[in-house]
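Quick note —
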Amino acid sequence: GLIEIPAIIRQVDDLQQFELAVLENIQRSDLNALEIAKSIYRLHVEYQQSYEDIAKKLGKAYTTIVNSTRLLQLPEVMQQSIANGSISEGHGRALLSLTKMPEIQNKLYNQILSHGLSVRQAESMASQYKKGDTKVKAKPKSSTNGVLSDIDTKNISAKLGAKKVEFKPAKKGGKIVISYSSDKQLTEIVD
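Predicted structure written out below.
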């Protein structure tokens, strides 16, 4: 209902406009790793920006920027899994280590999905596969001592309206970690 708002108006060229948009978008918590990677890659290719310059402008480490864009080398189905949250960016990096072994890469990808492997487990299995051990067995990630599955945590997250819900079991009891992206979302969760 405001008639006026405080604003800064800038005249910028296409590159500056895109850089500002990328900077703003990367700060958003709801942007997935693949969207960030595509934006960075676009800055690099279309606007001939070096990864070092992009890293400085975004306030990120050079390796973070390069590793982010490497996700675009994954097969489309794996990229989609990162985009929809079925697997994490960390899982994607573990899978990238098997790029020269597409059959094994696909095998690990399916094991991550079917057994709910943690990133550490996926990295360990990828390392074993690279050493030639083809009889690596996937051990399902223990969520809450077998009480809740990954699907259950996603349902709880959706019901709470939370960004993410994690259960961290301990020998006795454990912790529930509820992630939120704004004060408004926190208020809704509390209510």
